[in-house]
Known about the structure:
The protein has one helix at residues 45-55. The chain is mostly loops. The termini are far apart.
Amino acid sequence: MSPVIVKSRIDADGVLRVTVPLSPADANREVEVTVKPVGPPPMTQEEWSQIITATAGKWQGEFERPEQGGYEEREPLP
């Protein structure tokens, strides 16, 4: 039996329901299940609002595009 990775989402009631398809040859075998979160928890509306409030209106420079320079000179195609 090779390792199987299954991703699932915890329901709103806090219960994780997982279905793992295995072969009949693996019947009656003991397995180990490890549960670990994937990535950071989603940001709440309040956390998002705090970030926007903290950064809004903070720009203290001029909004003008700096000089972009010239084009690269290449040899002509044959």
